[in-house]
Each structure stands twice: as structure tokens, then as C-alpha cells.
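Worked problem 6 (solution included).
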Amino acid sequence: MNAGARKIQRVYLTLTLGNTLAASFIWGINTLFLLDAGLSNFEAFAANAFFTAGMVLFEVPTGVVADGWGRRTSFLLGTLTLAGSTYLYYMLWQLSAPFWWWAVVSVLLGLGFTFFSGAVEAWLVDALRFSGYEGGLEAVLGRGLMVQGAAMLLGSVAGGVVAQATDLGVPFLLRVGVLAAMFLVAFWLMHDVGFTPERSAHPLRATRAVLSASIENGLKNPPVRYVMLAAPFSSGVAIYVFYALQPYLLGLFGDPGAYSIAGLAAALVAGAEILGGWLAPRVRRLVRKRTTVLMLSSGVSAMILLALGFVQVFWAALVLLALWALVAAAGTPVRQAYLNDMIASKQRATVLSFDSLMGSSGGVVVQPALGRAADVYGYPASLAVSGLIELMAVPFLLASRQQRHQADDFSGATDTTEAESPPLQDS
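Solution. The predicted structure is:
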């Protein structure tokens, strides 16, 4: 990695660190926060579903911002939107607001995150290629996941401890403060490199063009399409499980007021991300095909979730949670690298945002359904069901493998100047 690429990597890791730290202050206590505001399990996960619905609604329009106005502009707008909507969440808690207000503000939270999704990763990949970096993306993305895990570890533990020492609202105010600081950091450090925005005077026309490009370079590209079709199952389950583990573990622990235990659950996931980010490039060197890693990650995750549905011992549940998070984390950089090596630079942010949209669409359906299952049958049963849903992703990953795209085997830089790289030829 040359000096220019190292500088790009440092900026990427700095943005990842700050953004994840801000977001993670509430990750360990978010479900408890919603329940404390008077929402039922169904309403709490329905509020989360409105959050993911906001991501579905705004992924394409914010993709226009990222590809048309610049990835830096998109990031800056994201920090402002997320800070404002997080403060509104805090005010709803103070006022014990009715459910529909939570639904509206949850959509705004989703809008904030869509400014980040696709834009930061696209900025990184284009800037690295522009700087002359030709190595595999798993190494850089793995480091990003390690930094993300470290920030999540610090933020989630701090959020749980602060909530227990003060109240459940203070971590939300901490998030607002860090996001304001990240706006200044990104304004100073982040500049679009290796990419020229194509601004349009007609936002609606640009949105249609972006949606068309997403479909043409995403859903109409078979190996990319099948990875995207697997996302609703894997992402929907991951979102639900992460937030369901808070009340689930508190129930096993036996103290509903031990908010630091909820923070511990998020911290275990964070630690697994650090180790998973370190493992990803090493696993990739041992396994020839990226899709093999993805299928194993999804299948093993499903088995662990099924086991969690039958565990009644707190410490055993913690061990399984750590294994689940580690297996999922080790597959994440591989999936990111696989997709990026099949996407052209011009449509990179657009297609990555559309991929995020596909994952969020699963969360819209899966979260309230599993939340209702938790109300009726309990959290252990809902976790077992989530394992069955996760298994549904495996056939789509197998279908992507069968397209024999060169990105499945490749471990270095690919030429993505064209909209679609050629598949591997049968021997």
C-alpha cells in the first residue's frame, strides 16, 4: 500500500470510528428505551421496522445525492439528519409520545443512515483505486470492520453504563454530540478523490436514472442479483436478533434493570467484529471462492440461532451470541469485496445503496413479525424462527456461485470500468 492509499485508509478508519462510536451509544439499550417509553414488544420492533422502511424509501434518492453531488456531501448530510432525528427520539421518550410519533421519527432516523450507506464504501474503493492500490479489498474492509467493532465495543458498553448511572435518555444525547463533532471532522478530512459527481438539474429525473442504473447493474446482473436477494433474509434477521438479545439476556440474567448487561451483549458483538475483521482476509486466503465463505457464514449463523432458542443458561447464551457474531462478522468483508469487484465505479454508490435497500426491506417484514412471535411465544422461540429465516439466504448465495463470475475467485484489483465484468468461462 503506497502513501496515498494509506492516507485514504486513515481517513476511512477515522470516519468509521467516529460514526460507529456515535451510533453505538444507544445500540445496547435501544429496545429497553422503547419499552421504557411504554411501547409493547410488537410496537418496539414495529418502530424499528419503520426505521428500516425509511432506509428503503430513501436509499435511491440519497444515492442520487452520493453519485450526483458527491460522497462527501452525502456523509455531511447524514451526520446532520441523524443528529436531529436522534434528539427527536429523546424528546419522544421524555413526553411518553404515542406510537405513531415514534414511527414518523424512526423513518427520519432511517433517512439519516441512508446518506451513509453505499457512499462511504464507494468513496473508499474509488479513492483507493485512484491512488494506485491494487490489493484485495478484504484487507482494508477487514480493518474497517475491526475499527467498527472497537468503536462499538466502547460505545455500547459506555451507553449501558451511562444509562444505568443516569437514565436511558442520556446515551441518545451523547450520540448527538459525537455526530456534531463528526460533521466537523468529515468537513475537514473527507474529499471526493477518483470520482467526479454528475449533477443534475432535475432531481426526479436523476432519481429515475439512478433507480434504472441500480436495476440494470444490480438485479439484472445475475451474480449480483442473487447476493442481493439473499440480503432480506440475512439482514432482516441480524437486525432483529441484535435488538432482541437485550431483553432476552436480561430475562436470563434475572434483573430487568441491569442495563449494563444489555451493553455487554452489544460489546460481545463488537468484540466479534474486531476478531472477524482480522479473520476475514486470512479465511479468504484459505478458501478459494468467496461464495463458499458466505454460504458457510449464513448456514452456521442459522444453526447458532436455532440453538439460542433452546438455551436457558445466561452464560451459555453469551457464548453462543459471541459465536454468532463472529461467524457473521468474518463473512461481512468478503461479501463487501465480492460485490465491489462486480460493480463499475460510476454506479458503485448507487448499487451499494440498492443492496442496502434490499437488506432493509427484509427488516421491514421480519422485525415486526418476530416481535409479535416474541410477544406470543417468548424470545427464545423467536430466535429459533429467525434461524430458519436465515437459512433461506443460502440457496441464493449458491445461485450466485453458479454464475462463475471472476470476482468469486479474484483477490486483487479488478477492472470495473464497465458495468459488468465477464463471467468465468467453463473449461
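Discussion: DSSP finds 16 helices and no strands in the chain.
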